[in-house]
Amino acid sequence: MAKGYWVSVYPAISDPESLTAYNKLARPAVQAGGGRVLSRGGRVVAHEAGITQRVVLIEFDSFEQAVAAYESEEYQKALVALPDGFERDFRIVEGID
Q: Cα torsion at 21, 22, 23, 25 (round to 10°)?
């Protein structure tokens, strides 16, 4: 079964400290959904049309598990806590077996 991944890129974060409320809710929701953080805001080298802003990569045992974690009540509560002026490109992608 192919793994599932959450890939988040943050082109604009005007106030990183404002993500605190989201992070407090999102972290346990991701863990409860079986997610494992592989990368969170580390160094980035961008090529071509890439951006160097924050990137987060979370792995799940399956694509279906990744979708279910996003749709969970716990994670939906975290999304409500995202601050105004916050921009994120979020995708759920299926890995290769």
A: 90
| Contact present, 28 and 81 (Cβ < 8 Å) | no
Which CATH code is given to the segment(s) 4-94? 3.30.70.100
In the chain, domain spans: 4-94
Is 0.85 surpassed by the pTM of this model?
Answer: yes
Question: Which ranges in 1-97 belong to alpha helices (H)?
Answer: 20-32, 63-71, 73-80
Predicted confidence (pLDDT) per residue in 4-49, tens digit: 999 998 887 777 777 888 889 999 999 999 999 999 888 888 898 7
Whether 66 and 92 have beta carbons less than 8 Å apart is answered as yes
- Return the closest-CA partner of residue 60 out of 16, 20, 1: 1
C-alpha 78/C-alpha 4 separation (Å) is 20
